[in-house]
Each structure stands twice: as C-alpha cells, then as structure tokens.
UniProtKB/TrEMBL annotation:
One MF term in the entry's GO annotations: ATP binding
Keywords: ATP-binding, Nucleotide-binding, Transport
TM stretches of this protein: none
InterPro entries xref list: AAA+_ATPase (IPR003593), ABC_transporter-like_ATP-bd (IPR003439), ABC_transporter-like_CS (IPR017871), ABC_transpr_LolD-like (IPR015854), MacB-like_ATP-bd (IPR017911), P-loop_NTPase (IPR027417)
Domain of life: Bacteria
Gene3D superfamilies hit by this protein: P-loop containing nucleotide triphosphate hydrolases (3.40.50.300)
Species assigned in the record: Thioalkalicoccus limnaeus
Identification of the protein by name: ABC transporter ATP-binding protein
Cross-referenced SUPFAM superfamilies: P-loop containing nucleoside triphosphate hydrolases
Length: 244
C-alpha cells in the first residue's frame, strides 16, 4: 500500500504554494477569497486548516487537490505544477495522487462496502480479482474487514466514514484531503475517525490536509494553520491529540 511513500519522500516539500490568490467575479463584484498565500507542506505532514466560514480554507484545499485553479501564483504538488494542467490531465493526476474524504461520506447506497471501496480502482487497469484484493486490504486497515458485504444503510455513521477513508486510500494516493471529515459524527465516532487518520499518517506515512471547524479535531493533527479573509494568519504546533 505504501509504494508511493518512497516517491513522495524524495520531494521536499510535497506541496508548495507561492503567491497563490483566488478571485471570483460575480457580475461587477470582485471577491478575493485567497490573498497571496505561501505554504509548504512536507511529505508525511498532518495539517489542519481552520478558520471562520468564508475564510478560504475549503478553496485552498480544493486548489491543492486539483479541483480548482488559482487566479495567480504557482501550485506544485508531488513535483507537478498542477495549475498548468489541462482538465483531462488534472483528472488523471487526481486519480493517481489524491484521496478524498468528505463530511457526508458520498457512498453509493446500492453497493456494499467492498464495492464502494473498489470504485476508484475502476479507473485503473487492475483485474477484478486485484481490485477485490486491494479493497479488502484497505477495509482491513480501517478495521472493517468484517463489514465488507454490508451496504451503507447497515453501517453506523462512523463506520460509513471509515469505508470512505478506505476508498480514499485504496489506490495508495500521495495525498489525503479531508473536508470536515467528522462534521456529521457524534463525539465518540469522530474520535475513532480522527485516531484512524492519525494512525494512517503516523504508521503508514500518509500526508494529510484536513479542513475542520472543530479545535478538538485539529488537536489530532501535527500542526494547524489558521486562515482569516483569505490570509494565513497563524501557525500552531502539534495539538494535545498528536501522537496518541
């Protein structure tokens, strides 16, 4: 599962933003969401992005993941200048390099956990047998090997999010981006998910960026960055939850 980690370890930093700005034009209105952000994220980091609603944290996450493009500046991830890529090239790059974890899981209700985890592998040349094997390994890593045949409706919210994490890591991506991954969970389930993310970072070397509004969730990251009105305003060290 960790072949890409050796490749990523050779690139320092894994993510490099220089002078990144994002402006949306809405009629005559000009909305500056990010203002000349400089940011380095080394391989193996676990970064929490915090800030009030509208601060630009989700926009920043989307740009690093190749879902949005900067208006100005350069954005390099895993050695690639992704702001220069075409939409087709970006789609291929995302499939190979980025795993996504969302607040509301985004699982297909008609499919089992196993089949949901296999979905990213349908874009590869892996045989059906190898897809099943990779999905089984990913489900085992998140502690749900015994739930492979269950559909989302037969799983708790925390279990569904763990299936979503298994889906995010099944293709061994360079980077995991998590947008409010505990926002729809109770405190106990949220802590289970955060401990899992922390273990994937610590024991498997996965580089993660997590947007969260919850200071308790941010404590599980190695460091926290705060955005306010599109400006990076503060960097904090590892929280109390780091290294649990």
């Amino acid at each position: 599962m960790d072949a890409s980690l050796e490749r990523g370890a050779m690139i320092d930093p894994l993510v490099c933003l220089r002078g990144v700005s994002k402006v949306y034009e809405r009629g005559r209105q000009r909305v500056e969401v990010l203002q000349r952000v400089d940011l380095d994220i080394p391989a193996g980091d676990f970064l929490a992005l915090m800030g009030p609603s509208g601060s630009g944290k989700s926009t920043l996450l989307n740009m690093i993941a190749g879902l949005d493009a900067p208006t100005e500046g350069t954005l390099q991830v895993a050695g690639q200048r992704i702001e220069r890529m075409s939409e087709a090239a970006l789609a291929r790059w995302r499939a190979a390099n980025v795993g996504f974890v969302f607040q509301f899981y985004n699982l297909l209700p008609a499919l089992s956990a196993q089949k949901n985890v296999e979905l990213p592998l349908l874009l590869t040349r892996l045989s059906a047998a190898r897809r099943r094997r990779h999905a089984a390994i990913a489900l085992d890593l998140v502690g749900l090997a015994d739930r492979a045949s269950h559909k989302p409706s037969e799983l708790s919210g925390g279990q569904q999010q763990r299936v979503a994490i298994a889906r995010a890591i099944v293709s061994d991506p360079t980077l995991l981006v998590c947008d409010e991954p505990t926002g729809d969970l109770d405190r106990h389930s949220a802590e289970e998910v955060l401990l899992l993310l922390q273990r994937l970072n610590r024991d498997h070397g996965k580089t993660m960026i997590m947007v969260t509004h919850d200071p308790k969730a941010a404590e599980f990251a190695k460091r926290t960055l705060h955005l306010d009105k599109g400006v990076l305003i503060e960097t904090a060290g590892a929280g109390a939850g780091a290294g649990r």
